[in-house]
Amino acid sequence: MAQTVVVYFSGYGHTQRIAEAVAEGAQAQLLRIDSDGGLPQHGWDLLAAADAIIFGAPTYMGSAPWQFKKFADASSKAWFTRAWQDKVFGGFSVSASLNGDKQVTLIGMQTLASQHGGIWVSLGVPPANTLAATRSDVNNLGGSVGLLVQAPSDAGADAIPEGDVQTARGYGARVTGIAQRFKS
Ligand SMILES: Cc1cc2nc3c(=O)[nH]c(=O)nc-3n(C[C@H](O)[C@H](O)[C@H](O)COP(=O)(O)O)c2cc1C
């Protein structure tokens, strides 16, 4: 079985909930970036050993929070040794607005994965964008590069629409499934 790690930052718990849903689908280990932008002691070893790495962050002011950027910059050590070369990568971002410029955060993650020589996994699900579509549908936000999630600004993580949570589980499963195909 391919080993996937979901490495994420969450300021107020919304991205944490989605990281858990992605990890459930991916049968992955969770690795939280702390409020200082650091990883726990074993964090870098866990990432080095992974077959697949999924990045997660909320969108703050139109891009990833500085804590995620600190982690990304610190990953230059792995870049120097090509430690993440040919791993499978995915990414997700949570924000309050339906759009909210989440795509900018996602493209940053895709670029980070590409700098490391990784293989990026798209969302792989068509958009639910018909008149009959609702927020309970899978991929109702119409993402393609990776996973997009909306969390209402005045509510906790429990208020994230079920369609987004389901999309998160499905995306996690897709990333690990693809990593498994590369492994076998
Ligand atoms: C400093 C800051 C900046 C934010 N900027 C945006 C933004 O650009 N677009 C948006 O839609 N939401 C924005 N939000 C809302 C967050 O993306 C949203 O509340 C998200 O669910 C927070 O995730 P977290 O609880 O994991 O930190 C911002 C929130 C904060 C605190």
TrEMBL record:
Q: Does the keyword Flavoprotein apply?
A: yes
What Gene3D superfamilies would the database entry show? 3.40.50.360
Q: Which GO terms describe its molecular function?
A: electron transfer activity; FMN binding; NAD(P)H dehydrogenase (quinone) activity
* Keyword set includes Cell inner membrane: no
Report the superkingdom from the record. Answer: Bacteria
Task: Write down the PROSITE patterns for this protein, in alphabetical order.
Answer: FLAVODOXIN, FLAVODOXIN_LIKE
Q: Which UniProt keywords apply?
A: Flavoprotein, FMN
Where is the Flavodoxin-like domain positioned along the sequence?
Answer: 4-176
**Which Pfam families does the entry link to?**
FMN_red (PF03358)
* Cofactor(s) recorded in Swiss-Prot or TrEMBL: FMN
Instruction: State the InterPro entries in the record.
Output: Flavodoxin/NO_synth, Flavodoxin_CS, Flavoprotein-like_sf, FMN_Rdtase-like_dom
Name under which the protein is recorded:
Flavoprotein WrbA
- Record-level GO cellular component terms: membrane
